[in-house]
Amino acid sequence: MARTVSRHSKDAEGAVVDCELGGVARKRRTDELWERWDRHMAAQVCRGRADVLMILCCLVAGLTDSTVYNAFSTFVSMQTDLSSGNTIFLGLGASFKDSTKPFAWAKSLASIACFLLGAFCFSRFCRYLGPLRRKTMVLSFLIQSSMVILTAALVQADIVDGTVQAVVVGIRWREMIPITILSFQAAGQIVGSRDLDLHEIPTVVVTTVICDFGMDPRLFSSLKSNAVRNRRFFAFTAMLIGALVGGRIAKSTGGIEIALWISGGIKLVITGCWLFWPEDSS
After folding, report:
1. Segment 269-278, tens digit of pLDDT
2. Considering only CA atoms, which of 159, 168, 61 is closest in space to residue 107?
3. What dihedral angle (degrees, nearest 10) is formed by the CA atoms of 67, 69, 72, 73?
4. How many CA atoms within 13 Å lie on the side-chain side of 70?
């Protein structure tokens, strides 16, 4: 009887030891996984082929600006582009009073101010975390996509009227909500392109892209020998396609929410790409 009790107690002690060892092993594996994840997120992303993601950002800019302009008569990405965008609208509003749109200048001013604030915040946020670290790019584009999706949800829920070409005298102050949110997030795109040293793809400006494309001394060189020219061409084309698609969607649906959902989805895809983007080996 004593031997049986002793054997059972030893078995129980062995089970406890095995359980403790198993817990230690699981904790070690968990710690190793977290360390690998931390190293993965802290790594510098490779600039190679990052131009594809920035060109997608041009597509998003075309989508959002074409639809938002149709609904709110202002831009959220192009602050100083194509006849100087919102800058001209602001100047016209201050110097020439339109009785049907007495506060249109306020929307342009809000857009410019929030774009400037976005550039200030995104640049310092990226600089603090490390401009080309994976976690920096993922967080930056996650914030941008979340803000676009939030705006789409607000319009979808009729909190903000996103009706295209609605006849409105004066200003609907709730329009300021999507204008400020979208303008703020748009600045994150150009900050990203600057951090990636892709100055030829500013993502929110077309005029300089067209000018630099025309000024390129190697404009007619072979396709493989001038990557910068190719990027400018595809950036312009992507923004044009985005504007065409956005305008078509707005015309067929009578609203801007569909284009905003698509824009938010594209930015989420870009965020996911950064999560698994190749590491810089240099």
Report:
1. 999 999 999 9
2. 168
3. -160
4. 25
